[in-house]
Amino acid sequence: MTTSQKLFNQLQSVLSGQPWYGPSVYSIVDNISFEAAYEKPAGSIHNIAAIILHMTGWTEEVMDRMNGMDAQLPVRGDWPEPGLPDEQKWKWIVEDIKLVNVNLAGFIQNFPEEKWNEPVTRKGDETEAGETYEYQVAGLIQHHIYHSAQIALLNRMING
């Protein structure tokens, strides 16, 4: 199995498949009401909408890196502010995380196999301390898992 196939399969499992650890990202996100998405339980730093915007931004950043751009913080910012509760905006946030991951899946499938082990660069032409493109995508998949668990826990705190 190629690196592209392996990473593509892992991404699909985490997003919409049946990962061994529990519910997929989309099965969690699709069960969040817009009211819950904007609520911030006591003690929490971010609400669900902010976490999903954060996930979307980092997915875009990894794709930019795969496209040859220097590593940096996401264009949207690390933690974009979701603003006031808005049902239509919530639908767009959910659609956006799904669309950006469709794009990522395409990037993974079409990424040259020989480039997976090349180091990612950042401004100033320095490498990301041995972080390869494979490492970046695998890390993003782990990032999706981590934050989907946060979302599930926040939703449980809000809705019981």
Automatic annotation (TrEMBL):
Superkingdom of this protein's organism: Bacteria
Listed name of the protein: DinB family protein
SUPFAM superfamilies tied to this protein: DinB/YfiT-like putative metalloenzymes (SSF109854)
Organism, as annotated: Mucilaginibacter rubeus
Coiled coil: none
Span of domain DinB-like: 28-151
